[in-house]
Amino acid sequence: MNTMSTNIQSGIDYASISRKNRSWDIIFASLGIVVLFIAISTLLALFLDLAIRGAPQWTNPDFYTSFPSRKPLEAGILSAWVGTIMVMLVTAIVAVPLGVAAGLYMEEYADKNWFTDVIEINVSNLAGVPSIVYGLLALGLFVQTFGMGETVLVAGLVLALMILPIVIVSTRESIRAIPIELREAAYGLGANQWQTMAMYMLPAAKPGIITGAIVGLSRAIGETAPIITIGALSYIAFLPPSPIGGDFPFISFEWLNSGFTVMPIQMFGWVSRPQADFQITAAAAGAVLIVMTLAMNGLAIYIRYRARKS
Amino acid sequence: MSTDQTSTIQISQSAHQGGQAGKPSETREHWYLEPDGALRARVSNLKFWYADGTQAIDDVSMPLVDKKVTALIGPSGCGKSTFLRCFNRMHDLYQGVKYSGSINLLPEDENLIDLDANIVRMRVGMVFQKPNPFPKSIYENVIAGLKIRGIRKREVLDEIVETSLRQAALWDEVKDRLHQPALSMSGGQQQRLCIARALAVKPEILLLDEPTSALDPIATAKVEDLINELSGNVTVLIVTHNMQQAARISNYTAYMYLGKLIEYNDTNDLFQRPKCQRTEDYITGRFG
Ligand SMILES: Nc1ncnc2c1ncn2[C@@H]1O[C@H](COP(=O)(O)OP(=O)(O)OP(=O)(O)O)[C@@H](O)[C@H]1O
Ligand SMILES: [Mg+2]
Known about the structure:
Chain A is mainly α.
């Protein structure tokens, strides 16, 4: 083997090149594993710490069905998790259609000129704006100017604004990743732009868009700063009115204008209490919040995996 | 490729044997046949520029005979695909391109360059070099063009699916799995599916850009048979790199070089008695 590789093309020693390349592979792979291990073990340590400290609370079913209370070990997260789900619902309903429409427009419809370039740079920059700035915007615009109060709707809107850039960027990227052949096949058959988008491009981009939306929502679910800024309370001993049921037409939008709390605020409220037992409650709430976030990311991974398989 | 070479040499030998009258003259730059049959389109002084200013088509004039197969040959980069894609205005999907001249559809006498691109693509079908079925079922692929045109009646669709797949010599292979994903088929089957998809909407002109370049010899033979059958029913314009293929399936052949049309002729004449030196150099493999 060695004589062959040195003789056929004299002067090139394939064996040594191959050995050198292999050693680079090994160095890079080990480095990667170390970094990965550090990242995962940090997260795991954090989670385990919360889970162990909060165990007396999160293992108790009452924790999920009770309102917050002055007595630490009777306090529950009912209003917090219901609030979180409602706020996320508003965020998703607002951010996903708007973000997808904006991404689609920028990628497919808008002319490419300096004006769209400016918008494009702005959208990318918006993703980096600190979340508290969004909170201040919402406080000034929704709460004070429009007099909307610190409601589910306002919280959902501010989080929607915050994750809009994520949805826009992921929509654009998944549309851009569609092979040009698919687009030309559709247009080539006589499809107009809207048909091409609705029948071929959006379905092909769907897994990427959904992943982006979930990544955005799982960022929103843990946000505290903008929600505190608009003035949400951590002690909410009631649930927003149910969106369904009641009188005809069985759908109500009262809940949008209700006061609320969400998981991170609830947790923040408990952490700042002096009684030591509240730390247990806070840790339990933290563990539940992490599980909610991981579950959403798990869903995103599953969707991507399924899309890749088909 | 090697078999190609030997057979092109055979063509050239026969050209020398039979070609006393048509011996190409060194000075003849262009030669265009005026065909007898009815025309489907006439290209006049067509020029085309890409967004970066590249002029890929330079003053091409050429007839397209109705219900016949016309082959476009020429070395890589000479503008064959660009020319083909002018016919369904595919270039319009990209900003900054420019056309000049005309592609007049006959007998309507409408310049295709001035029509609405969307309407042009409804009338002119295209099959691409790389099979590009939609990531949907075989059935959905065939009816894609019909759905786009708002045809939704089940019986109509079912019937067209069968006739189109039969036309594309694919029916027997897929009739039991019409609802399986198109991407689970072999490359050759996918390409025939794309042809069926294009035929399903009864295009007035069918454009084929090297439709067999990604296929094995058996699949290629099937596609060639299919094109032979289309001749007489549909006006076909096909780009091919394979001169044997052009000789086998086309009635007329156009030889392009550097964005210009060098020779347009009856296929047999072009391969056996080329009128231009450049054409002869190319088909004999002395160049290209
Ligand atoms: N999008 C583009 N932008 C700018 N120039 C282009 C573009 N596409 C093609 N060209 C140029 O136009 C010329 C013709 O290209 P075209 O693809 O039509 O050649 P072709 O004859 O089809 O070649 P091949 O046989 O390799 O497919 C080439 O010089 C090419 O570099
Ligand atoms: Mg080409």
